Please model this.
Amino acid sequence: QVQLVQSGAEVKKPGASVKVSCKASGFTFTTYAMHWVRQAPGQRLEWMGWINAGNGNTRYSQKFQGRVTITRDTSASTTYMELSRLISEDTAVYYCARDAAGAKKALDYWGQGTLVTVSS
Amino acid sequence: QSALTQPASVSGSPGQSITIFCTGTSSDVGGYDYVSWYQQHPGKAPKLMMYEVNIRPSGVSNRFSGSKSGNTASLTISGLQAEDEADYYCNSYTSSATRVFGGGTKLTVL
Model:
């Protein structure tokens, strides 16, 4: 069965960076794209970017361009999202999600979410 | 990329039907049939409910249906049930090869 298991909660100070991992299982990792989506407390879902797990190509939301880096380790079937220069408004639950097969351009499986708290 | 526009809230009684609208632009909703919808219960990860405007993933009730006209997509839930109470988000592929979510709609089953 498809599973996306994310790393645990993080507490960071303003100005620091955070790196969240998402380990995939139950499918051939390199044949899919993986996305990162965040949700601030009580707020909407916000798409951050995606990575083609096969060739490593990435695309980011303009809002996060220059601050976010999405990578993958194919040997570990894991994708990573690193966000730098953190501010309090980056406090949110960060989700990874799989792009559905067949170019449906929908997110069919989601990780459990990782809470990142930015506080001095 | 601005968020797609959704009503903040909708409500309906059990057994009734409701429709949630999602308005974008010709660069996203209007330009592609790649609109998807997600249901999110409090404290849970989102769940895919509809993709490519009107296709239900396996396991999603046929009480859910989707459509699109111009720059506006919609999700209709018929025969409302208490378990449908949740937040709903639309999402679209964009001309920049990115994705964009709507602002979210809170569905209350009265």
Summary: Chain A touches chain B through 25 residues (CB under 8 Å). The mean pLDDT of chain A is 96.
